[in-house]
Amino acid sequence: MKILVMGPPGAGKGSQSQKLIEDYDLTHISTGEMFRKSYERGEKLGIEAMAYIHEGNLVSDEITNEIVRNRLLKKDAERCFLLDGYPRTETQAEALDEMLSEMNSKLTAVINIVVDKDIILERMVGRRVCRNCGHTYHTKFKPPHKEGICDKCGGELYQRKDDQIDSVRNRLNIYESKTKPIIDYYKGRGVLININGMQSFDAVYRDIKKALRDLT
Ligand code: ADP
Ligand code: ADP
Ligand code: ZN
Question: Cα–Cα distances in Å, from 144 out to 119, 128, 159, 167, 199?
Fold first, then answer.
């Protein structure tokens, strides 16, 4: 199974991807998470990328395509993977097609999580992320058992700089102009699955699983 999870920032891509990779045993490839990890490790790539990310801008297609290409070439991505947050531009979508055809492979499904703007804003400003394992929480909708501490690993929770209101607005505008148009790119191929993301975590997940079951 080879899946893309798309949707605006804050739609729930990461949260739903987490469950999908466990249930279907998929290799999780999140470009945002790869950039954050690289930055935490003090690597040049991560530091360069973070300058864009902090402002809510996209990292260049060149850098992003390169890290995805290298990741897809690893053994654990051969059979099944879930791409979360990539592609985000038409150039990236075309690059992904090229990578897949080189691998003699194609996408099983593109899951598009649909959420209105006002809900997105509330989700993003309340998001907290574990500095250690990357697990995501929400101050109101998914609080940790102990404030500021990750349930899974005991790591420190923090608010991403790009989840502050000014960056969020910029990210939403970029989503509308650069990312949303590629949904049509996939619609034409009959692999697109639209999911109503304005429901509980479990209800969204139930709908995704049902749609995937109907595919096979
Ligand atoms: P979210 O989960 O809120 O959608 P991500 O963690 O996926 O955010 O990404 C965080 C940031 O990393 C993005 O706002 C962007 O700056 C950068 N980024 C992630 N994926 C890509 C990509 N495919 N192309 C360009 N930039 C990206
Ligand atoms: P994305 O990866 O698309 O940016 P996340 O999965 O990180 O989105 O979710 C954004 C925030 O919204 C997180 O704090 C998460 O806990 C919360 N969230 C995600 N899905 C739901 C939902 N269905 N109901 C309520 N809150 C949600
Ligand atoms: Zn953790």
Answer: 21, 9, 14, 25, 20
Asked if residue 126 has pLDDT above 90, the reply is yes
- How many domains, the chain? 1
In the reported structure, the alpha carbon of residue 147 is separated from the centroid of ligand 3 by a whole-number distance in angstroms of: 13
**For residue 181, is it within any domain?**
yes
Question: What's the whole-number average pLDDT of the chain?
Answer: 95
User: Counting atoms of ligand 1 from 1, which one is nearest the CA of 10?
Assistant: 3
Catalytic residue set: 13, 88, 127, 160, 171
Distance CA 185, CA 91 (A): 11
Residue 69 included in any domain: yes
- The average pLDDT across 9-15 equals 96
The CATH number of the domain where 187 resides is what? 3.40.50.300
Residue 139 lies in a domain: no
The reply to whether 75 falls in a domain is yes
pTM above 0.85, yes or no: yes
Given CA atoms 89, 93, 98, 99 in this order, what sign does their dihedral have? positive
* pLDDT tens readout for residues 85-121: 999 999 999 999 999 999 999 999 999 999 999 999 9
Q: Which residues pair with 54 in a beta bridge?
A: none
Enclosing domain of residue 81: 2-115+166-215
- Measured from the alpha carbon of residue 13, the closest ligand is 2
* pLDDT beyond 70 at 216: no
